[in-house]
UniProtKB/TrEMBL annotation:
GO terms for molecular function: methylated-DNA-[protein]-cysteine S-methyltransferase activity. Its EC number is 2.1.1.63. This is Methylated-DNA--[protein]-cysteine S-methyltransferase. The keyword ATP-binding does not apply. Residues 13-73 form the Methylguanine DNA methyltransferase ribonuclease-like domain. Residues 78-158 form the Methylated-DNA-[protein]-cysteine S-methyltransferase DNA binding domain. The lineage of its organism: Bacteria, Bacillati, Actinomycetota, Actinomycetes, Nakamurellales. GO terms for biological process: DNA repair; methylation. Keywords: DNA damage, Methyltransferase, Transferase. NCBIfam families: ogt. It comes from the Bacteria. Pfam families: DNA_binding_1, Methyltransf_1N.
């Protein structure tokens, strides 16, 4: 988890209220609703990275942005960080399987469940697009609310690609 108090701001997006956190220099979290356990919020602030993140998220939701250009510092284990880096490499509007991401993160396809666990701990929702992950059968995971949110985010990307 991030160390120290996190600067934060909130914004409303099409999937609900988003909580954005920063260590002052980098974006450390984009959460739908509440942050992951262990995140300690400090004062609400308008750090430059939070302002940039809001602007880029607005552009992403509008279909005008395909890739985020933000300094990020997600707190996680080395394996989680490799998974999140592999997920960021999934092209906009595409999907990949948990098994394929396991291979890209230096594990075996049998580590698909570990990728799912890392995905569930992703502190940078949307910026690290875990909504692009599917099972080998093409299904979305994440419980009823999480799977529905992933479906909505994938639809944003499909519509944006169709309108270009």
């Amino acid at each position: 988890m991030p160390s120290g108090l996190q600067q934060w701001t909130r914004m409303t997006g099409p999937i609900g209220e988003l909580l954005l956190t920063s260590d002052g220099d980098s974006l450390t979290g984009v959460y739908v609703g509440a942050p992951l356990p262990g995140v300690v919020l400090g004062d609400q602030r308008s750090a430059p990275v939070l302002t940039a993140a809001r602007r880029q998220l607005d552009a992403w939701f509008a279909g005008d942005l395909r890739a985020f250009d933000l300094p990020t510092a997600p707190a996680g284990t080395p394996f989680q960080c490799r998974v999140w880096a592999a997920v960021r490499a999934i092209p906009y509007g595409s999907t990949s399987t948990y098994g394929a991401v396991a291979l890209a993160a230096g594990a075996t396809v049998g580590a698909a469940m570990a990728v799912g666990s890392a995905s569930a701990r992703n502190p940078l929702s949307i910026v690290v697009p875990c909504h692009r992950l599917t099972t080998a059968a093409g299904r979305l995971r994440g419980g009823p609310e999480g799977a529905r949110r992933k479906e909505i985010l994938q639809e944003f990307e499909r519509r944006a690609l169709a309108s270009t």
